[in-house]
Amino acid sequence: MKNIPEVKLGIIAVSRDCFIISLSESRRAAIKAAYKGDLYECPVTIENEKDMLAAVADVKAAGCNALVVFLGNFGPETPETLIAKYFDGPCMFVAAAEGDGNLIDGRGDAYCGMLNCSYNLGMRHLNGYIPEYPVGTAEDIACMIGDFVPVARAVIGVKNLKIITFGPRPQDFFACNAPIKGLYELGVEVEENSELDLFVSYKKHAGDKRIPEVCEDMKAEMGEGKYYPDMLERMAQFELTLLDWAEEHKGAREYVAFADKCWPAFPETFGFEPCYVNSRLASRGIPVSCEVDIYGALSEYIGACVSEDAITLLDINNSVPKSMFEESIKGKFDYELTDTFMGFHCGNTPSCKMCADRAVKYQLIQHRLLEPEGSDPDFTRGTLEGDIAPGEITFYRLQCDSEGNLRSYIAEGEVLPVATQSFGGIGIFAIPEMGRFYRYVLLEKRYPHHGAVAFGHFGKALFEVFRFLGVKDIAYNRPKSLPYPTENPFK
Predict the structure, then answer these.
(1) Is residue 376 classed exposed, middle or buried when 0-12, 13-18 and 19+ CB atoms within 10 A define those classes?
(2) Counting Cβ atoms within 10 Å, is residue 220 exposed (0-12), middle (13-18) or buried (19+)?
(3) Please, are residues 233 and 217 in contact by the beta-carbon 8 Å criterion?
(4) What are phi and psi of 172, to 5 degrees?
(5) What architecture (CATH level 2) is domain 9-150?
(6) Where are the CATH 3.40.50.10940 domain residues in the chain?
């Protein structure tokens, strides 16, 4: 199941009718030559509204789902901005720098034209992606297009996403009970189901002919001695249940994410913990968030689109003991104790993002709660546990607050190569100025305990995605030199 959009880019040049049209066309061709990826060059250069309709029809017929609108000269304000209205996909607006030294017939004034373009987009309440500095040579714009692709991929994905949930959001995790109004504003569809619906479907998959093949794949992924042989068939049956549900229920949407209730009734009813199966779907770009965290699932999906890689959802869980910091971090890494914390979940992080000692184990906390004291773990088995592999990460979340307003945060950091000496899927995270970020963003703005994790530094693209989606409040971990609005200046 392909669950991440493929961006098919097109470029349309525009030209003010009192400028030389060939200037836009030759500059458009230079961008096509400079860009190393697939870029459809629309043959229609837009000077008026009829040209605009013809150009949009042409790029649609070519299968384009994202556009570069290129001001090769000043550009016609109305037709160029109406592209964003008539084309059903994200549009980037960029302009040509003067580069050939000919400032008589070779001057395009696109630097000025971008001002009018932006003004007209605002007048019409149209959304366009404008890079940090949108004026450049062909090579510059080719780089801008490269930055635009992951943003476009995420926006296309969100607009065509259905989040499928199973079970009510848990009573004792109100952080997961955010209003879903914001999802509809983003264009996301939601399908809410009972846990009984899932269990009925699961039972129907008993004896599925595909189960042995999935079991063999699980064995190959984990390696001998890293899984419970008697659990494989049950987990494979559940994996097929989710995958089939996704195909059968996505309806008019192209992409799917899940938000499932995973405790306390699930393990006792199904006979296992769902975490390992959830991790396997996440590794394929199909997030399955824990505890019916709908915005967590959306956040994970956006990260999967941006990074084109596996992602995870973790609790911002516990502080690093001072003794561990003194012994393993201080003096070896440029962090303070308050810059560090442990990110944890029961076992949903994909195995490809964990250290070699990872294995399918049992959920210690659930075992204490649900199974007889002193007994061997039974139905609480099924978590994927081990330390998360060290490397760069981006911790982020898109959330709807209690008033129905969308807000988000982004913080880049790393997982340290330090043993956690704990259980679950867990890692020691380090984010510059995390202590202040924790106090003046996570606590001050009342974010929940779940954060999405992308494995790499993707803050730039995520910021642009959130901004394009209309999120006004995008928080980040500020340096010491930049206080938060509510930070006490006398401390």
Answers:
(1) exposed
(2) exposed
(3) no
(4) -90, 10
(5) 3-Layer(aba) Sandwich (3.40)
(6) 9-150
Give the pTM: 0.96
One-letter amino acid for residue 267 of the chain:
P
Which helix (H) or strand (E) segment is 392 a member of?
A: strand 391-400
Say how far apart CA 9 and CA 145 lie, in whole Å: 9
C-alpha to C-alpha distance for 40 and 206, rounded to whole angstroms: 48
207: three-class secondary structure by DSSP: coil
Of the CA atoms within 13 Å of residue 192, those in its CB half-sphere come to 7
| Contacts of 196 by beta carbon, 8 Å cutoff, 6+ apart | none
Which SS3 state, helix, strand or coil, does residue 193 take? strand
Chain centre distance of CA 185: 17
Residue 7 structure tokens: 């961006």
326-357 per-position pLDDT tens digit: 999 999 999 999 999 999 999 999 999 999 99
Residue type for 293, please?
D
Residue 433 has which token pair? 């100025």
Cα separation, 384 vs 359, in Å, equals 6
d(CA 129, CA 344): 35
- What CA–CA distance (Å, rounded) separates 281 from 206? 20
pLDDT, tens digit, for every residue of 20-49?
Answer: 999 999 999 999 999 999 999 999 999 999
What is the C-alpha separation between 468 and 167, in angstroms, rounded?
A: 31
Least confident interval from 68-72, 173-177, 415-419? 173-177
- Long-range contacts (CB closer than 8 Å, 24 or more residues apart) made by 370-374: 370/264, 370/267, 370/268
Q: Could you give the CA distance from residue 434 to residue 479 in angstroms, rounded to a whole number?
A: 10
Query: Are 288 and 194 in contact, with CB atoms under 8 Å apart?
Result: no
